[in-house]
Amino acid sequence: MASVLTREAREGKARMPSKRTSRRLIAVLGGTTRPEDLGVALRHLVGPSSMVRGPVIREYESSFARQIGVGHAFSFSAGRVALYGILRGLGIGDGDEVLLQVPTHIVVPNAVRYVGAKPVYVDCRLDSYNMDLDQAERLITPRTRAIVLQHTFGNPADLDRALALAQKYALELIEDCVHALGATYAGRQVGSLGKAAFFSTEETKTISSTMGGIAVTDDRELAARLRAFQEECCWPSASKTARYVFKLVLYHFLMQPSIHRYPRYLYEFIGKRNPMPRATAAEEMRGERPANYEQRLANAQAALALSQLRRLEANLAHRRAITEVYGAILPQAGFDTVKSLPDARPAFVRYPVWVEDRTKALRAEAPRALLGTWFTSVLEESLSPAHAGYQPGSCPRAEAAAQHLVNLPTHLRVTEQDAEAIAWSIANSIPTARSDK
Q: Which stretches of 182-248 are assigned E, i.e. beta strand?
């Protein structure tokens, strides 16, 4: 896509969405892949000798480290395992406390709990949906060992302030970059400023290997511990890896906007049952540790991630152009759009919008796009936040955000015209007043 904002959108004259239903339906998933990725997938499916183990893993890790601007990168089966490895490598364990923000995903506090530490929940700000660092400072105790700083939706958090807190209280700063591949702060890639960082290449993220994660650091001692941890991790089975690779291929076709409404009808008809592998195990949703949690990334998945990593700049340029459309139209309708710091350059994996009536917004968009609903809970996908020690009422802004946020798609299949129609549909369907004002 030519990554420029239309003159109509810039001038506030972008067209209202047509009442006639288009054949196009924008899906939440499947928007990161290109035909060349299918070639990579099919080569491994028909020649499975290098499906699990192979040389691409190290090539991918080296390329990822160069992209972030650090010396070391280590791949794992998921971003949560990368975080777990970082915590272990830093010696964080029984009796320690780790600050992390809500809303987040249940797997983040799970990783903290699995090493024996206690997650301490910090509320978010409603302008950026990032951590309230003033509150974080008030929650620091002699037992606090680390801050997990989430760059929510790909919007960089206040790294200057977080680094100052880490230095003042002798804490480790771990960047949660699962949404934020390619975002920058003060001209540097997020993930390169803290002691360590973790990323995700799960199917909803900026690049996708269906499942996958990676830990990065510039610290040699931590890198040695992460390498040792990675070597302890078991390899995934060939059959599981093949299912992940096949899922990527299947989603590439089924999520095409020109045909997606038809598989979507079938999905709804059969009761939203999905036979493909899920990203979160049932045990994790209950706050329990699943079997075979500590796993490595397979060679075929590394090859898929590397293929997309090589196109990252074009991917980011597209997402920024789509974000520009949303950011131009929604304020015209009175919406408060997400704010970024002056030194930050976001890379929105999805674009968050606060709406007073989320059900109405989802219904209004249904003819043209399936909106994301990160987050519907302060701990997304948890059966109950209490399973991970969250106390209701302790983070009221995050709880409110979990009731009101929708996420607009930014992936490669969203055209500028799609973005204009989505933004105007939201603008025309729901009130803009926010109850926290």
A: 184-185, 188-189, 196-200, 213-217
Other C-beta atoms closer than 10 Å to the C-beta of 281 total 16
Closest by Cα among 211, 141, 223, 182 to 318? 182
Task: Of 409, 426, 277, 273, give the one whose Cα is nearest residue 362.
Answer: 426
Q: What are phi and psi of 132, to 5 degrees?
A: -80, 100
∠ CA(264), CA(20), CA(261), 5° rounding? 10
88 with 238: CB under 8 angstroms?
no
pLDDT tens per residue, range 151-205: 999 999 999 999 999 999 999 999 999 999 999 999 999 999 999 999 999 999 9
Q: Are 5 and 325 in contact (CB under 8 A)?
A: yes
The first and second tokens of residue 30, run together, are 């499947």
For 105, the 3-state DSSP assignment is strand
Q: In angstroms, rounded to a whole number, what is the distance separating the alpha carbons of residues 419 and 1?
A: 13
pLDDT tens figures, 267-316: 787 888 788 888 999 999 999 999 999 999 999 999 999 999 999 999 99
E-assigned strand segments in 94-182: 97-101, 104-105, 118-122, 144-150, 172-176
Domain contains 381: no
Domain CATH number, residue 52? 3.40.640.10
Question: Which tokens in the block code for residue 302?
Answer: 């590394």
What domain range is 185 assigned to? 35-232
Give the count of beta carbons closer than 10 Å to the beta carbon of residue 168: 10
Q: Is 117 in a helix, a strand, or coil?
A: coil
Number of domains the chain contains: 1
**Is 206 among the domain residues?**
yes
> With left for phi above 0 and alpha for psi between -120 and 50, is residue 200 left, alpha or beta?
beta
Assess if residue 107 is contained within a domain.
yes
Whether the link from the prior residue into 290 is cis, omega within 30° of 0, is: no
353 forms beta bridges with 406
| Beta strand pairing call for 184-185 and 213-217 | unpaired
Q: Coil, strand or helix: which one is 291?
A: coil
